[in-house]
Amino acid sequence: MNDWEIYAVLAALVMALAALGFSISAWRARPAAGVATRMPGGGAQAVQVPAAQKVAFVANPSKPDVVALRPAIEHACQRLGLEAPLWLETTKEDPGTGQAREALAQGADVVVAIGGDGTVRAVAEGMLNTGKPMGLLPSGTGNLLARNLDIPVTDLDEALLIALEGRDRKIDIGWLKVLEADDHPEKVDTVVGQIEPAPSGSQHLFLVIAGVGFDAAMVADTDSHLKARVGWIAYFVAALRHLHGKRLDMTVRLDDGSALSAKVRTILFGNCGRLPGGITLLPDAVIDDGVMDVAAIDTRGGVAGWAQLFGEVVMQGWGLRNDLAGKIGKIEHTQCKRAVVDIPDGEQAQVDGEVIGRAKKVEAWIEPSALIVRASAKISLNLAPAEQ
Questions:
Q1: Per the database record, which ranges form the DAGKc domain (predicted)?
Q2: CA-based, 20 to 30 A from 320: which of 20, 94, 198, 300?
Q3: Is there a single domain that holds both residue 245 and residue 337?
Q4: Within this chain, do residues 165 and 190 fall inside the same structural domain, yes or no?
Q5: CA–CA separation, 303 vs 315, rounded Å?
Q6: Distance (Å, rounded) from C-alpha 18 to C-alpha 20?
């Protein structure tokens, strides 16, 4: 990268950070809106919360301070008149699905996931179509589902209150299936290095956003130590290293429509669209409308295209759209029930921020109302442990 390109990247970074800062301020100032719905007849699908519920917590012990939360959680359950909760910890071999099923087998009325997006995805998979709700106690970097449900990610007391005494909501979930792996060993990402192929036939749940292309490369290249220090901003730093990545030739088929050719940086499949920092990537996505939002993102013109794209993302979070022709950085939105994407040269894929490997052909779809989640608090209660 020559001196001009370095200065241009830095300028783009400054503009993007300024836009992000303004977006964060606007997001924090907005009234709490809850989870928007477009259910037939209006209103959200609500489920009666059991009066005397048995609660289970599935905790990721690798997250800082998670194990230390156990005494406070048990105390909170006691104050609410609940029996002693079940406590199950995840492992590398089983990140939460088996523990969620075990909790249900032991009679749990609600299962609370304590951890990041990976833990939430795994627990959700064990809770699908069971009629039992999943609560969230976010303890990760992205905490994507929690943000989209307006569950506080910095106030664990309030999040715990929602998990224990909140209102239950039915939401959609998404699936990404690898129809054909990209198993050419000679293909190496110029920044990330070797990425394993996604196994053909493998099927991956997502709750927020899945994608193929730039987004997955960015996730794969994010420094875990930097992420631990600065949180979601580490993803932005990783993105800068992929600004000169290749555009992807792909064929996209939506529902029963004709196959369309496209040349893009990334294609996203969304169940909901709010990201950290107050960014709304998919402004039309609703978590319980039974449809999938698809976004094709492309840039040309080097750094200038990316700078325009950053501005486009921030603008749409404020409800503004730029429909001018000839843009060098753009996002095209549509909706469908199912999508099949062919990428002849293969590319990395991700689900809710977890890289699943390289793929040449994927299928994505929405499963409506498959998961019940705790999404809003009903009471207020001081959860501080009693003095001894």
A1: 50-180
A2: 300
A3: yes
A4: no
A5: 18
A6: 5
